[in-house]
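Annotators were shown the component list below and the corresponding predicted structure, then asked to write short factual statements about the assembly.
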Amino acid sequence: MSKRRNWFCGSEEHRISRRSFLSTAAATAGSMSALNLLREPTLAEELKKQDKRVILLWLAGGASQLETWDPKPGSLTGGPFAAIPTSVPGIHISELMPKMARRMEDTAIIRSLNTKDGSHGGGARLMHLGRRDEASVTFPDMGAVLARELGNIDSRVPDNVSFYTATEGRGNAIGQAGFLGARYLPMSLTTNSKPDDLARLESISDLDHRQRHDLRELLSKRFIEYRHSSSLRSHNEAYSRVRGLMSSDKLFDISEEPQSIRDRYGPSLFAEQCLIARRLVEAGTPFVKVSRAWWDSHGQNFETHLELVSELDHVMSTLLDDLKQRGLLENTMVITLAEFERTPKINASLGRDHFASAWSCSLSGCGINGGMVYGATDEDGQTVKDGEIDAGDLFATIYQALGIDPHTEYYVGSRPIPLVHEDASAVKEVIA
Amino acid sequence: MALARPCALLMRLLFSTLTITFFVSNGTSATHGSELLPEDRSIAEVVDHYISARLKKYEIEASPPANDANVLRRTTLDLVGRIPTSSETASYLADTDEFKRQNLIDRLIGSPAFVRHQVNEFDALLMPYDKNSLREYLLPAFTENRPWDQMFQEMMLGREDDPEQKGALQFVKSRVGDIDRLTNDVSVTFFGVNVSCAQCHDHPDVFEWSQDRFYGMKSFFNRTFENGGFIGERDYGLVSYQTTDGETREAQLMFLTGKVLKEPEVAEPDDEAKKEEKKTLEALKKKKQAPPTPSFSRREQLVEIALKSSENNYFAKAIVNRVWNRFFGYGLVMPLDQMHPANESSHPELLEWLSRDLVQHNYDLTRLVRGIVSSEAYCRSSNWTGDSRPDPDMFAVGSVRPLTPFQYATLLRVATANPDSFGDDQKTEDVQSRLASLENAARGFAREIEHPGAEFQVGVAEALLFSNNERVRNELLRESNDTLIGKLKKIDDVNELISVATLSIWNRLPEPEEKAALVAYLQNRSDRRDEAIVQMVWAMLTSSECRFNY
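Structure shown to annotators:
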């Protein structure tokens, strides 16, 4: 039998034959409910009640697995940093992460990603979409999928927020809603930590601003009464969210936080944006991506990592503590991920180059079986020797851990498109 | 499938001549067991005949014709990409000529704005999500109403040394880095067939979608490459692929219909020859010259077979279906890229007739557009007051379509300009050039708006932009002599003020309830009348009526 690869084909006939094939297997696979894009699915509604959230820490440019989650001290490729034991017996991580080492209980490390694409652009697309591009289907990225699956249609807070204030690699870290539609595009913050167009202009009073929205709605209501189209509906939904979203303005303002909390996170931009991310998920935003650039250490890899990993260690551990103390970690998953990571081989400039064949990421919190390592690389870290997974498998794992069946299908027109490519399967060991 | 077979056979008969511009139909064009209407009927008549026949069959009563103001707005947006001015609206409403709609269509199609709008629409079709544009090529092509088959030929084969055709190659050039994408984009755009799934496996039900079709199509492009910004084509190179059973096969030069083309046998050059070739190409790159033309061009073969259409006229049907979709918001075959025998058209005879007509009339797209918008079906009201709304493929109700970025941005400019500048007392040329410059000025704003794809959803970013961005306030809600706001503030009589506003923005007079609501809005804010006018205009500009073509 060939592997299931026919997920793309979508003639009506195919859909029917495929679905009848599935229905014969439906007794066991009862999860194949169709997600019609234009209808609010019941399944997703149930999930939303559980208030699940994701914060993605995007290590743009490619952090080094050897200086973070998969150290190889003493080997030819190991570099100068040692490995230290963690609070979970048997798990060692880089000595650059002492704070995370004391908090391994909630975190699972995956050391066996083989994603094959060592280019910044291609790798970043792959690790945002969880799959390769296909001609003529524009897939949604993880943020858009989660905004749709976990968000509320009339939410007063933004449901997909993306921070990327550095310029290096920003163009690669796509925000793409694809066939889900612009409704799920991220609110994108690239110049500062406050979104555009969220605050009222001074030239209009709050009263007039509100009342003109009411007038707009009244006029539109007359128009749509006997007319029908899904994009017509989305137009009015978008406007009806404006006032609510404007009131979330304060979520982006960390001066609202007690000084003690701000001090704990620290003064870096990455830290501040992680604090905003916590404010957002606390208020109900389902997906926040905080990008930290630039990890592309072709030269001076060890200096770069000494600085960046130390910051990551501090900010990530503070974020996990903060979420935990607020009872949010149970419902919030924190992911560290990059487009690829770095070659075990140390080059002549004491750097490490692009490497997508055997690298690591971490998952913490919601739905995750913490305190464990999944997969392993060989002694030099050149290849995956155990538990190899690809981007699709990782995405399937993330979705499954959040309670979303990764093989649920979207229907784009009549084409069935599952959340992850059909060969992908979730890593059960990682899921709580 | 049983029905599709005779259809394919018929097409084989119909298109068996080599010529692409001419063939003789003997009136026995039976398809699906019935005869096609004669070819001398008008397009509009034929459209209405087949649409009505299906409505009758399903016992559906179509919605009534839209009113004059609605028809004027829809037609103007569709043909020239903007809304009518208040002066055009007033004169159309006052016109009593029984041929006024036909005159309107003639006037719009005859204007330079029609060409510009065609260019916008086709650029979006050919270069979606692409920073590159085909505008430079499309503008002269649509100005002279170049036949679509010729445009296809130029886009595939444009000669680098011909300044008029050079720009046409942009279609290939911007995709040449990814031959799979080039293959699929050509198949989808020009033939309405999405073969990409056949990359991995044969389609289980649709015999047309097999792996050998995809790799056969890919073979037309696999020798195409870029050298220093020029497109070239090699004389050698084969496509091989792995079947789902793991067998490695060499692809044949095969068109979507399964037709295999013969080609001269070529031997793969040895390393020495390849080295030599590389050297030559490097030298040409330095001299900024195009690579030599191949002795046998596979791309040329594609154009020939596609236009010969001896097996099926995918090429003509695909463009008819796209153009239809543009004016009705729903294709005769849906989805647009799934034109294969197992996915029947809602109106097969109509699609057949329109394709035949297009081929017979030299692939004249303007003729097709004119015919479609002249039909009664095109003019139905988009209001449905009945119980159950008919399926969109019945074309019983006017569609509601989101405006393209160009249309919405231009609408905003035209609506917020001082209506006096388009008045009857102005010279026609002046009005035309004013409208053209507003259209130009709209380009900046258009970039802020998402291009609507299938199942388009308006994002919250758009609503936030219009609610809180300075640009909206400064560019659209500005007060000066040349703006609508400037004009409105000078009108004392509230009834007149509202009429001027609705005519300019909605291209119609207000209904009594609307008028009452707007009067109340202004009167409640008489302490800040100027500000109230600005906010009323904002609410009208952002209303759904303004954002959609209905």
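Statements collected:
1. The radius of gyration of chain A is 22 Å.
2. The CA atoms of residues 117 and 291 of chain A lie 20 Å apart.
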